[in-house]
Amino acid sequence: MRYLRYAFLAVLGILLISVSLANRGAVTLSLMPDDIAGLVGGNFTLSLPLFVVMLGGIAGGLVIGFFWEWMREYKHRREAGQKQREVRKLEREVTRLKRAESEGKDEVLALLDETS
């Protein structure tokens, strides 16, 4: 399974390198359209290779998607934490009750009761 993962990563790397080499031409990114930039008084432009823009867009989309999913699952994580705290509390209570029940009994019988 490990070799399959390495093979997949190698193929993905070769694919990304070939796409990057094929798209080395420079493109100009503008913050706003020219008409609106004229009204505001300036426009921020940046010239980058096309593959940087493509891979940056993919990476930005992944980051936004992961963050969105993390925020969406917050209620589930909170509920799981509450259930985990409740389980720990109940386990401590069961242990305490078993100890109270086994007081005055033979030690071997108390140990047997505690394990079951």
TrEMBL record:
Residues in Lipopolysaccharide assembly protein A domain copies: 45-94
Where does the source fall among the domains of life?
A: Bacteria
Task: Tell me the keywords, alphabetical order.
Answer: Cell membrane, Coiled coil, Membrane, Transmembrane, Transmembrane helix
> Where are the bilayer-spanning segments?
46-68
Instruction: Point out the coiled-coil segments of this chain.
Output: 80-107
GO CC field: plasma membrane
Q: Pfam families per the record?
A: LapA_dom (PF06305)
Name of the featured protein: LapA family protein
State the species of origin. Antarcticimicrobium sediminis
